[in-house]
Amino acid sequence: MGLDWFGRHNRARTNGERVTRDTTRLLADLAEILPPDGLVTSDRALKVHETDGYVAQKGRAAAIARPRSTRQVRDVMRLCHLHGAPVVPRGSGTSQVGGVVPEDGAILISMARMKSVLEFDRNKGLIRVQAGITNLKVSKYAVRAGWFHAPNPSSRRTCTIGGNIATNSSGSSFLRYGGTADNLVAAHLVLDDGESIELSGDDPALALICGSEGQMGLVTEAQLRLHRIPESRMALVAGFATVRAALAFSQSALAQSDSLSALDLMDKRAVRLTEAFRPSDYPLGAEAIILAELSGPAASVDHQTNALASLAGRHDMITCRTSTDIQAIWSGRNAVYGAIGQRNNFLSLDCAVPLSQLQQQIEQSKLVAKDHALEVATVIHCGDGTVHSFLLFDPNDPDERSRADRCAVLIRSKAAGNGGSVSSEYGIGLRNRKALALQYSARSLKQQTDIVEAFSKERTLNPGKCFPEWMRGAS
Ligand SMILES: Cc1cc2nc3c(=O)[nH]c(=O)nc-3n(C[C@H](O)[C@H](O)[C@H](O)COP(=O)(O)OP(=O)(O)OC[C@H]3O[C@@H](n4cnc5c(N)ncnc54)[C@H](O)[C@@H]3O)c2cc1C
After folding, report:
1. What's the mean pLDDT in 218-245?
2. 72, 38 in Cβ contact below 8 A?
3. Which of 130, 226, 377, 392 might form a disulfide with 125, Cβ 3.0–4.6 angstroms?
4. Contact status, residue 350 vs residue 423, Cβ threshold 8 Å
5. Which CATH architecture has domain 11-112+447-471?
6. How much distance in Å is there from the Cα of 218 to the middle of ligand 1?
7. To the nearest 10°, the Cα dihedral for 99, 103, 109, 110?
8. 344-417 sits in which CATH class?
9. Contact (Cβ atoms closer than 8 angstroms) between residue 148 and residue 226
10. What are φ and ψ of residue 314, in 5° steps?
11. Same fold, 11-112+447-471 and 344-417
């Protein structure tokens, strides 16, 4: 049986007293309140749910609860609280950082069956959904009425709105529309003891749960702000002779164009891997390419796209094309994970640095990889400074794997040294716990855990994640 953060999870609570946790009893109690297919304990299912995209760590849950409603989530949470059992909320398990690796003996609450649209105000562009719906489904639902859901993590076909909220996800559209927190109007949160609260408007707790990685409560429903589908969209792909020239172009473009809705950079390695996997006519001779999307009224989009094309010509551009076929231009970029994963194993990082430090961060990351005889492919969101470094390694070579781990540590510390953050998209989970101390002082980390404890005093929700292990036992 695993211990939690404070070593408290192997205790159950009855009438205020603590007794040893009785998992068999808990499972029997859960089976009573859930329909027959609402509680899964088969070996096969538990094995599949041992980990997520971060396969380095695993844990075996005691059971997977599969509620259909907020009411059922409340009942499950209340029972787990009574038994002192840790609870791990799980969306689609696309976490790259071990965010849903259960502590041994925990109860996983899967949101897989909570994926309905509850309300849709087609005049105001507001949609209320159950938190297990996938990100892309929300846009697909709203598109007929002329709306879309803006935050677009690359995993949007699979990842859930609840997972997006818990990790405050974003994607290339962050530049124009912000991330999940910026588009969240209200959320229903079930607390560790089964009580539930509706958070809305300017309630500071609504912002706090964005990025709380399931430690403050389980989000069962969310109301999201949608955006009008723009009248016109254009995309531009330009190849540059150097990464420096591509970055210089991106910074001029940001200053010049208010129609930009996405601006990504891919280095040569990333371009070559994706072109071999999903050809998108990206220029193979370039050291870096920029993918830009512009949206808004047709006249200004046309005008600004042409202006950007001529601006590219002043920055060591090798080639540039524009297109209204947005899907075609982005298809290679959106296939990066698949393209790299097909050829190699990889560790993907999501550090972020101030825009002025991007060049330095890229150079340092490449140097670190070179010193460890590893290849690195780089994809950048130029609007918010997120640098995805994909460290490639052979899974059958344990030495390469450990060199990749060492590189990841060094690259994160470079990001912190460049005034940035060790993770901007994936969250902290298990993988980034230690690195967090590179970014925050012990005092700041303690303040953060104080906030978590204001919601879940005994820290039974997704225990062991988000904060460095040395904080175990601190209170
Ligand atoms: C190919 C690929 C591309 C990716 N690209 C991006 C990207 O561009 N941008 C980005 O931000 N991320 C990206 N990610 C990471 C991941 O997809 C996001 O973090 C996503 O938001 C996780 O959603 P999920 O439903 O899979 O959550 P899970 O992985 O199941 O869980 C993630 C965390 O959220 C918590 N959680 C899940 N549901 C709830 C809930 N209802 N209430 C409370 N807590 C909950 C979990 O406990 C865990 O801590 C990518 C991942 C992959 C595999």
Report:
1. 97
2. yes
3. 226
4. yes
5. 2-Layer Sandwich (3.30)
6. 14
7. 50
8. alpha beta
9. yes
10. -95, 5
11. no
Element (H, E) at 415: helix 398-417
Give Cβ neighbours of residue 466 (< 8 Å, ≥ 6 apart): 213, 215, 427, 428, 429, 433, 436, 452
The pLDDT value recorded for residue 472 is 67
Q: Which two tokens stand for residue 164?
A: 């997006």
Cα 169 to middle of ligand 1, angstroms: 7
What whole-number distance in Å separates Cα of residue 40 and Cα of residue 59?
A: 16
Taking CA atoms only, the protein residue closest to ligand 1 atom 27 is: 163
CB of 70 sitting under 6 A from ligand 1: no
Q: What is the pLDDT of residues 71-119, one digit of tens each?
A: 999 999 999 999 999 999 999 999 999 999 999 999 999 999 999 999 9
Q: Show the tokens assigned to 249.
A: 């172009």
Which of 160, 215, 221, 330 has the most ligand 1 atoms within 8 A of CB, as the residue to mutate?
160
Please tell me if the CB atom of residue 99 comes closer than 6 angstroms to any atom of ligand 1.
yes
Whole-model pTM?
0.93
pLDDT at 293: 97
Rounded CA separation 252/41 (Å): 56
**Among protein residues, the one whose CA lies closest to atom 44 of ligand 1:** 214
Length of the chain as a residue count? 475
What is the domain partition of the chain in residue ranges?
Answer: 11-112+447-471, 117-228, 232-334, 344-417
Given a cut of 60, whether residue 434 has pLDDT beyond it is: yes
- Per-residue confidence (pLDDT) for residue 473, from 0 to 100: 58
> What is the domain class of 232-334 according to CATH?
alpha beta
We find that the CATH architecture of domain 117-228 is 2-Layer Sandwich (3.30)
